Amino acid sequence: MNLTKHIKSFLFQLLLLMIIPFWGYSQNSVKGNLHGLKSYAGIEVGSKGVKMSVIEMSVIGAKNGNYKILKDTSVNTDFINFSNESFKATLSGLSGLYYTAVKQYNIPRDRIFTVFSSGVKVVSERENRTNWLQNLADSFRMLINEPERSLKPIDVIDEARLSHLGIVPASKRYTTFLIDIGSGNTKGGYFPSGNTKEFKLFQLTWGTKSIANATEKRMDDDKSLSNYYKQLQRVLAGPADEEITYAVNFSGAYNMSDNIAFSGGIVWATATLIFPELVENPVVPVTYDEVLKFNQRVYSQYRSLSDTALVKSVRDISVDKNIVTNEIRKVNKVFDQRALLSGSGLLLKIMRQFEGVDEKKQFYLVKNGQVGWISAYVSQMLFAVQ
């Protein structure tokens, strides 16, 4: 589809809409003691929306893998729907987050990195819609007046490797298999030879959104939750299961890894709803049975996962219940019941491959995994990771 005639008029409207409210917002915001030369932003156009992570890092921090998260936010736009509406929403979200980094956080433009996720690349190639990525990139460059700005799809192996370096602590770097479940695909891997130069890639063409899309295509006229659940099980037991089994076996990760770490939006959602009292813990250990019970609860007791119900379950008086409430509301805004079923179902299918009888792996859910690639990218700029 040719979007050119829609883009020019929309760019002008968008620019007008952004100028007035943006300055009002930035003037009332607290900027804090930020250091421009040490602050960086990564903005990623993903399958489900646009994500931005703002971090503060020093050269010493880059060496040690230490950084401070200043901002972590996202805008849901469903770019891979490839509609005019999703295009406009994505361009608006991308531009808005970019100007937030520039104006609110005073980050120099050359320290703001913009990419398409590997999941977007996979879906656009599969559906022959790669021109939508080029149109979005060109429109973004025109809107921010940066003709030379890079906005390209990140390669799946680069994204997986950078995520591992940015998420997994150095002490567990060579014993951990990282799996990032995205909207359009799943990727990850590990370092099999005790160095960061050789990376064994793990990838699936399935993600939370693509599992949901495949399920919805099977529903015909029966749109009920019970039929959705039934068709979801068929999708997970069919082509998805075959691909997962093959990919795990091919990776050789079972024999090489003691720890299996998961990241991605559905992982953040699952960790938050299972362990609301651990709201401020970026990483939580979990068992297969705990995730299985959660998946069943999503289907049969969904109301028990509301912010009101879950806050009541928090008994630790030291936990800030306002923070818990806000985080649960964010989860329920991003993931509805069917999305939670699809994502946790995919998570379970992958976990099942590591749930051995003789050897038990330690599973971890990483909530802030989306900052991984940008922190590792900056680390490699400031210090060569050995």
What is the CATH T-level topology of the largest domain?
Nucleotidyltransferase, domain 5
The CATH homologous superfamily of the largest domain corresponds to Exopolyphosphatase. Domain 2
Structural class: alpha/beta
Q: Helical amount among residues, as a percent range?
A: 40-55%
Order of helical and strand elements: HEEHEHEHHEHEEEHHHHEHEHHHHEH
| Morphology | globular
What is the CATH C level class of the largest domain, in words? Alpha Beta
Query: How would a textbook summarize the main sheet?
Result: 6 strands, mixed
Work out the count of structural domains.
Answer: 2
Number of strands: 11
Distance, first to last CA = 46 Å
List the uncertain runs: 16-36
Using the CA coordinates, give the radius of gyration.
21 Å
Widest beta sheet: strand line-up: 8-7-6-9-11-10
3D architecture notes:
The protein is α/β, with parallel strands linked by helices and 386 residues long. It has helices at residues 4-27, 59-64, 84-104, 118-126, 130-144, 156-167, 208-217, 225-237, 239-251, 253-256, 265-274, 288-300, 307-312, 321-334, 337-352, 372-382; strands at 39-45, 49-56, 68-76, 112-116, 151-153, 176-181, 186-190, 200-204, 259-263, 283-286, 362-366. A 6-stranded mixed beta sheet has the order 8-7-6-9-11-10, with helices on both faces.
Topology:
Blueprint: H1 4-27, E1 39-45, E2 49-56, H2 59-64, E3 68-76, H3 84-104, E4 112-116, H4 118-126, H5 130-144, E5 151-153, H6 156-167, E6 176-181, E7 186-190, E8 200-204, H7 208-217, H8 225-237, H9 239-251, H10 253-256, E9 259-263, H11 265-274, E10 283-286, H12 288-300, H13 307-312, H14 321-334, H15 337-352, E11 362-366, H16 372-382
Parallel strand pairs: 1-4, 4-5, 6-9, 9-11
Antiparallel strand pairs: 1-2, 2-3, 6-7, 7-8, 10-11
Helix pairs in contact: 1-3, 1-5, 3-5, 6-16, 7-8, 7-15, 8-15, 11-14, 11-15, 12-15
